[in-house]
Design a protein that fits this description.
Bound molecules: zinc ion
Order of helices and strands: HHHHHEEHEH
Strand order of the largest sheet: 2-1-3
Number of domains: 1
Mean pLDDT: 87
Strand content: under 5%
CATH topology: Helix Hairpins
CATH class: Mainly Alpha
Helix content: over 70%
Number of helices: 7
Amino acid sequence: MGPLLLSIPSTVFDNPHITILKNLGEAVKEQLRLLQQLQDIDTQTKEIQLTIEQVPAQLAPAKNDLEKLASMLIIERQQLADTEAWRAEQEDIVNREEEALKNAKAKLQEAKNARDFGAASREIDNKKRSIHDREQEILKVYEALEVGRTKLTGHEEDVEKLRAHVEGEEAKFADTLKELKEKVASAAAGRPAVEGAIDKTLLKRYNTVMHRRGTAVVEVRDGVCQGCHMSLAPQLAIQVARGESIQSCRQCNRLLFVPEAPTAEGEESQAS
Ligand SMILES: [Zn+2]
């Protein structure tokens, strides 16, 4: 793309009304105004679309946390259930051992000789020790279960709180998303009218530069292109300032304009 200057927009020739105006400056000004309007629409649309894309990502960390915590809760519950089952099993064993102890005591009563007596009392001692040891274990497990249940309740509350938070955020995001989509739609609705009023060559240049650079129409301030921040050649700076043609930056190809100094009339209307 050469350093083409989009001088007089073809609409100036196509539109007899504009030629009658005999004021190229007005036509150029109008085209520049439309181009800026188009750029505003496109920039706004792009920004909103970017936000729309980011919305699910913003919610992802909290959702991940919730999923992780919820699966940890399942493991925690399972471990507690396993411990509970082990405790019940131990208590069954104790019950059976107590039964055996009763039998051993009965045998002792019925012992007819020293040998039977000795065997029965050894069995009684063994059962008593075994029952005692197992009961100590069960007691410890009871304590552990108590602690485990308290922890689980706390974790369940945490997960519920997080779930409520995530659901609240999701609802909020859904509202935001709806709002943003409406904004995109309303911005896009105005675009064809603006686009249709822009000179075709100019529009083509606008689209190419916009696609490549993200902005297509930029201000010239103190002879410097505000798109690429390079100084314009003096001759070009003068042409842009004159406002009778639409020029593009030789470095970045962006379309250039010099903002109009506020007129006394403009200030008045602003003041009122
Ligand atoms: Zn530039």
